[in-house]
Amino acid sequence: MKCFRWHPVARVIGDDRALRTALALPGRAFRIGGIGPQPIGVGVFETLTSGSSGQPRRILRSMNSWLASFAVNAGLFGIGPRASVAVLGDLVQSLALYGALEGLHLGAELRLLGGMRPDRQAQALAGARVIYATPAQLRLLVEAGWQAHGVILVGGSKLDAGLRAALAGAELREFYGAAETSFITLAGPDAPADSVGAAYPRVEIDLRAGQIWVRSPYLFQGYAGVDAGPYTGGAVWDQGWLSVGEMGRLIGGYLYLSGRAGRMVTVADQNVFPEEIEAFIAGLPGVARVAVLPRPDALRGAVMLAVIQGDPVAEAAILAACRQRLGGLVAPKAIIWRGDWPLLASGKTDLLRLAREAGL
Questions:
Q1: What is the pTM of this model?
Q2: What are the pLDDT digits (tens) for 158-181?
Q3: Burial code of 17-36, b = ≥16 C-beta within 10 A, e = fewer?
Q4: Could you report the per-residue pLDDT of 4-38, keeping only the tens digit for each?
Q5: Alpha-carbon separation of residue 281 from 76, 137, 192 (angstroms)
Q6: Residue in 196, 250, 242 with CA at minimum distance from that of residue 216
Q7: Could you give the angle at which helices 315-326 and 274-282 cross, rounded to 10 degrees?
Q8: Strands of 222-223's sheet, edge to edge?
C-alpha cells in the first residue's frame, strides 16, 4: 500500500499539530478542516474545493493520486531532503495541503505560513526555495513590500500581467488544475504569458466543443459526504475522462483558458466569459483587483459590470480601454469601486458576496 509518510529528516516550522494527527497512522484516512464525519478507509483522504461558486465540496482521493505527482515535482523543482518549502494558505485549502504533504513526504523543511499577516509571511519566506501560493496571496505579499525569490508554484487562478511583472525576481511556474484533477498543465519560462502552459507529465487533454477533458493518474475518486449525492454541478466523468466545466483552446500545444461554463454569460446571443474580461482589466493601470459580474438586461439578456479595487481616477480610461479591446457589447457598462476585497479561505475572490453586495 502506498501512503503519505513523514520523512525522517522532514522539519516543520509552524503549527504542525493537524499534520501530525493526520499522519499518526500510516495510510489511515483523514481530512483537515471541513464539517461532517471524518473519512474511513485505508490509503484514501479528503480535501476541499475552494468554494468560489458556493460551499466547499468534499473531495475523496487516493493517496497515490498525489504521491504520483510528488515524484514528478521532486525532479522538476528540486524538492527533497532539507529543501525549504513554504505554503502560504491554510491546510484546509487543497493547494496548501498538497504543498505541505509533498514537502513532508520528500523530507523538506516545511514552513507553514497560513493565517500570518503578509508582512510577517514576507519575513518568514527568507531563504525559501519553493513557495506554493495563489495569485491573491502573492499580491498581498507584494503589497507588503516582499521581494520575490525562489521557485513560486502558482495555482488557483491566472496571473495577471501586473502581478507577473512584480514577481520578476522569482522563477514563476504557473500551473492549472482543480481540487478534482490536481495538475493539468504547467507553464515553464518559455510558455506564452496568456496560456496556462502545456500538459503536465502523464496528463492527456481533450477539447470537446471547447470544454476541457483530462485523463491522468492524478484524478480524484469522487465527491464525499453530502456532496456524493446526485449531480449538482460538480465534475463529470466520461469513461475515465474528467471535466470540471472549464472552457479553453489548445494552440501549439499550450492551453488557453476561456472560463468556467458555469460563469459564461450570453450577451445579445454572444457567449461571454467574465474571466477573459477580468484578465484584461487586471493588467490596466489603476486596477489592484477586479471581478466582472453580469446584470440582467431586458434588451441584451445581460450586461457586464466590473467591480474593482484600485484608483477611481482611472475609471474613464479603464472603460475606454475595454470598449476598444472588447467591443461595445462585451465591455463592462459601469464600474463599482470597493475599498475592501472579500476573499475565501482559499485566497480566491468571494464572487457570491461581491454579487450580493452589488445587488446583482
A1: 0.85
A2: 888 888 889 998 999 999 999 999
A3: ebbeebbeeebbbbbbebee
A4: 999 999 999 999 999 999 999 999 999 998 888 88
A5: 33, 19, 19
A6: 242
A7: 130
A8: 44-48, 58-62, 222-223
